[in-house]
Design goal:
13 helices; about 35% helix; four-stranded antiparallel sheet; alpha/beta; globular; seven-stranded mixed sheet
Length: about 375
């Protein structure tokens, strides 16, 4: 069978699909990696589970219990998966009929919502955020017919802003009895007071996504959580893989969620926030920077004069940022993950050498 005929066997939507352009897929030969919103330093763990000859638990008891305690929920309100990305997809598989139902989200935002929908064959609708990156509630209301899932990232990636809690309340009322509202809280450890996890008792159709990839410094572990009422978790359990977490992953996740692990995470968060505020102040002193947006996360979005030149200049110096030019409303914008103080200083040093308004504005 030829390669062409094999490709013809694939689903049409998969043949046409552009995969999510993750930081690692985009490559680069840098030594300052500020494009994936990772914690900049490795956190050491010792593997204690040696029963690798046995299949792991589908939902490791210790991990579930510790995350439930951390989130202030009951164990039956927590599902653990291969990153929050699997949670995004599980919800579509459980609640959306391909070719019939739709999902909705509000760009500029995280790219996996569209990729997961396209992979499964579920229609997705977009309602662009307002200029202040808050929800366009009237626009969402007009698009809700046939929608089963509404994904809202807060703090939002890549803009770094929180969604207004009053807007969340209005959207929850708007979707009641019609759709699930999925609050993606991948970065909530940087602003824990804004979490919606405590709202689950009031809204049976609310779902919250979490991860250990960011503040817990465990992006390589691929461990995420879906928080929801027990009825939703029971449905997701019907479609999740039999063994979503390997034994070593569950082992390390359990350690990270111990009292000591959570205390260490909070120390790291405090350090990153201090680095973030200094980097924001320093960026605002650079001639090539037009605007720096406030952030509630471990990254900063900034608009640059001639952003393509800025991106390439830093790339050539081994400093890898994330280009956001193709996102709606983000022309000229680059996203900078918060690194160590030394890494942040290297960014500023590289930017200081670049001219500002004398460089012709690139074409949008």
């Amino acid at each position: 069978m030829s390669t062409n005929s094999v490709e013809a066997l694939a689903r049409a939507n998969v043949r046409a699909l552009t995969p999510y352009q993750s930081a690692r897929r985009l490559g680069g030969n840098g030594d300052v990696w500020l494009n994936a919103n990772e914690y900049p330093l490795a956190v050491p763990f010792d593997l204690s589970q040696q029963t690798l000859n046995r299949y792991p638990e589908c939902q490791p008891k210790l991990v579930i219990e510790r995350y439930a305690a951390y989130a202030g929920l009951n164990a039956d309100q927590v599902l653990v998966s291969r990153g929050a990305d699997e949670g995004i997809e599980l919800l579509m598989r459980a609640f959306c009929e391909p070719g019939k139902d739709a999902v909705l989200f509000c760009p500029p935002t995280y790219g996996m919502y569209s990729v997961s929908a396209e992979t499964i064959g579920v229609e997705y609708r977009t309602v662009e955020a307002r200029e202040d990156w808050q929800l366009n509630l009237s626009g969402i209301a007009e698009q809700l017919d046939g929608v089963k899932l509404v994904y809202v990232c807060s703090p939002n990636n890549p803009t770094g802003n929180l969604i207004n809690p009053d807007d969340f309340r209005e959207l929850l009322e708007m979707t009641r009895g019609k759709a699930l509202l999925v609050a993606d809280e991948a970065y909530i450890e940087f602003c824990p007071q804004a979490s919606l996890a405590g709202w689950l008792k009031d809204y049976p159709h609310l779902v919250v996504l979490r991860t250990l990839s960011k503040a817990f410094a465990l992006a390589g572990l691929r461990c995420g959580f879906t928080l929801a009422n027990a009825e939703v978790i029971a449905l997701l359990m019907k479609v999740i893989a039999p063994y979503p977490l390997s034994t070593p992953v569950a082992d390390i996740a359990g350690q990270a969620l111990s009292d000591e692990g959570i205390a260490l995470m909070r120390e790291h968060v405090a350090q990153l926030i201090a680095n973030r505020e200094k980097l924001i102040a320093d960026l605002r002193q650079c001639d090539c920077v037009e605007e720096v947006f406030n952030s509630e996360t471990n990254y900063i979005l900034a608009r640059f004069t001639a952003s393509s030149q800025v991106f390439k200049t830093l790339w050539d110096q081994g400093i890898i940022l994330r280009d956001q030019n193709k996102q709606p409303g983000l022309s000229g914008c680059l996203r900078i993950s918060i690194g160590t103080r030394e890494e942040c200083d290297r960014v500023i040093s590289a930017l200081k050498s670049l001219p500002g308004a004398t460089v012709p504005q690139e074409q949008a």
